[in-house]
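Quick question, first post here. What does this chain look like in 3D?
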Amino acid sequence: MAAPFDKYKKDINRSTFVRYNENYLVGTFGSADVTPFWVADSDFIVMPELVKALKKTAKRGLYPYELKTPEIKQPLIDWFKKRHKININLDGLLFTTSVNSGLAATIDELTAKGDGIIIQPPVFQGFKGIIKGVGRKVVNNKLTLKDGKYEINFSDLEKKAADKKNTAMVLCSPHNPVGRVWTQQELEKIAEICIANNVLMLSDEIHADIIYSKATFIGMTEVYKGKSDNIIMLGSAGKSFGIPGLVDSFMYTPNPVLKKKIQERIMRFHLGKSNAFGNAALKTVYTHGNKWLDKKLNYLEKTVSAIEAYLAKNIPEITLTIPEGTYQVWLDFNKVTKNDEELKELLYKKAKLGITLGTEYGIGGKGYARMNIASPRPMILKALAKLKKALNNFVII
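> Answer (accepted):
Ran it through. Tokens below.
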């Protein structure tokens, strides 16, 4: 009998899903004839309690303007306290349409045009676009790869943070796409550097719940506690429960001055509108989601092991950076291709797989690709088999 996460519903029209949309696939991969593993989205059917809650909301027949009441916010606060030992005060909690929109609004509101914003490539490609989009400068603190594990270049970070033109840092925690879950020691060192140089900390913790058994997630707001309140944490239930198209996102800061400025920005641009189904989803997943999420994490971790084993046995030239968190895997193709054009040829045209090139994530991504593994394991293994077959017939010019 197949595991619940092995099920792939074929009777669903996915044409409006970003991951499967034909226009997106053609624009990104040059063809719609690819199996997509690119957008950090999930193919897993959501938890049963959520479906039940949404049906109950639908039966109401009334969908007026709604508020995020304390009754809706409290399960979120309880979730972070119990699951991650992160203390979120109701007074410091804000909601906006997405982590990306919240991050853009925050950078635009709290920094000045031309300021430098520090990021750590290879990193989520959206950061670069957001920073440039609001007229700020991208400042790279490139991660270093040592013995198959990515580390932070702290001497470079100290240098970048000491530059008065660099006023904020966007921390990706856990890190997308390389899968690092930063340790207490690493986070404390980052905090020490940013606090000493008055660099605003913007901690993107959207993948906070996707943590594997050998790692422990530590919230940056807890690291900052008692040291500084120059920090904003951003998150969402979207990745955790496979519902980014349903729920909005939240921001939390212990700093009332920062909170007031962001709240005014949200109100000024009408970025905080609630949705009846989103509110029901938020309350439901944070109230009833523990066991379901644990099962999902167990499934994903077994998928990582299956990928590692398959590559070692069948395609040893392609190696995997073992993730400590997130449902992305970072694959090294440097031994089989020389440049992006060859990698595109192999992935998009020969294997017909929609996997994102590493160069999309900035410096340090050359020769790599990110694969989203939040799909039934048979789909993942079938994709690897297509890659193996394509590589067997692939001639490097």
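The first strand starts at residue 35 and ends at 36.
The domain at 62-288 is CATH 3.40.640.10 (Aspartate Aminotransferase; domain 2).
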